[in-house]
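hi! just following up on the protien thing from before. the input was this:
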Amino acid sequence: QTLVQVGLYAMGRDAKVFPKPEQFSPQPGPKHFKGLGFGFGPRQCLGRRIAELEMQLFLMHV
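and the predicted 3d structure came back as:
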């Protein structure tokens, strides 16, 4: 078996996107969310959970 994970910790610490990635900043993040293909907040994609489940099933069968 192979374990495939998304590095959420690392995604939020990209110096190209976040000016001070190791420092907490309560201000809103960047205007563009490169790593959030489903949107963010209350207006995120309604099919997000289904798509995530499909991705998991695909990876399990590869």
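Residues 10 and 21 are 10 Å apart (CA to CA).
Residues 48-61 form the longest helix (14 residues).
cheers
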